[in-house]
Amino acid sequence: MPVTDHVNLEQFMEGVKKRNPGQPEFVQAVQEVSQDIFDFIQDKVEYHEAQILRRIAEPDRVVSFRVCWEDDNHNIRVQRGWRVQCNNAIGPYKGGIRFHPSVTEGTLKFLAFEQTLKNSLTGLPMGGGKGGANFNPKGKSDAEVMRFCQSFMTELYRHIGPDTDVPAGDIGVGGREIGYMFGQYKRIVNRWEGVLTGKGQEYGGSAMRPEATGYGAVYFLRNMLKHRDMDIEGHTAVISGSGNVATHAAEKITQLGGKVLTLSDSGGYIHDPDGIDQEKIDWVKHLKNVKRGRISEYADEFKGATFHEGRPWGVAADLALPCATQNELNEDEAKTLVKNGVKAVSEGANMPTTLEGVHVFHDAKVMYAPGKAANAGGVAVSGLEMSQNSERISWNHERLGDMLTDLMQGIHDKCTEYGDQGDGYVDYVKGANIAGFKKVADAMLAFGVV
Ligand code: NDP
Fold first, then answer.
1. Residue 255, domain CATH
2. At 4, is the pLDDT very low, low, confident or very high (cuts 50, 70, 90)?
3. Given 118, 130, 140, 280, which residue is catalytic?
């Protein structure tokens, strides 16, 4: 008898914990997925025999490397870089690069695991990966960021390629960093090829890519509300973060007639009861992308707004969009949101809500969309950037906007297919986990034991 026939969820998770010491976020991500998958595969012997879940929870490979660079004072600095290639059953590895001092191998393994299911959900041929370094771009000069990116790519280039692994941006990696890394890759291999996504539009980037994650999270939110005969118009929203995902989520909420009350960064949050309109969002984008300033400056600029330390979840609103980072919304904060009447939560960030927080939303029957479904618009448009690069064409903003809307609708429908609880409530976590898992698992079955 195959071993997994005798293993229950607790025993399985014990094994995951033992094999991945000191990687709590990875264990948390596997736990969240496994509880749904254990139910789903209970009567499906082929998945047990092939040990599919066990194999998906073990990355294909983890590459770790030294990144040396010289700062402006001529000090030699040493950072650690990684690329986690989790699973390429349905397409080349695909997933962002994160530069943040908190990055560890465990963080990237969790993100690559989530990415595998997310990419599957998009319906596009993309496997899952993630990379990064414990480098802090904050406070560094452009020249320092350039030297770091070049050094990082000097090692990374040998592990990636347009049909092998196609990284993109993530926290701390925006257009500037992608430009420096793409330039270095091209210089080393002497080929122009679509090895990174999120590129500038002058050199092969896709229209709609910068907006796609934030807009997509709002489209998913709109789909959830529509499923219950509701709409975004006239509703208030609390949003965390003030980076790429948060500002574009705020923009789309505003365009659809909602009112955004908060944005944040790691220093605290601003509360603007008048609403953060397009003009103010543009000001925040400039503050963050050009001036590289702090969100607290917003309260100096706009009368009526206030700055507070901590996170924004105590501000009462109908909708919540965590768009900063993992584990930024805990059980108590989820209870506060519920108490204040939140109707729906759509995650722009990856795993921003703790497992306990998710249970609070489910128990209160609040519509709750996990990041792997709600923020998949970014990687979906990255997939479309890969297609455009391969075909040497570029589609316009309008066409890509329509494609993004359709893709998010398709993801929503897959979630409802597997997550409908029969009483009108949809468990989007379960729906996303099962739909994402099934496609990858079936591909792996076709390959045999590899
Ligand atoms: P950015 O670097 O553009 O912005 C990140 C934002 O989150 C900043 O406001 C940052 O504040 C804040 N933040 C980061 N770490 C923390 C922390 N520990 N505590 C509080 N605030 C924090 O990143 P993105 O907007 O691209 O990414 C945000 C989230 O969305 C991440 O979880 C990412 O994985 C996810 N995501 C991004 C995609 C994309 O296309 N960019 C695609 C899918 C998911 P500060 O400036 O102070 O650090």
1. 3.40.50.720
2. low
3. 130
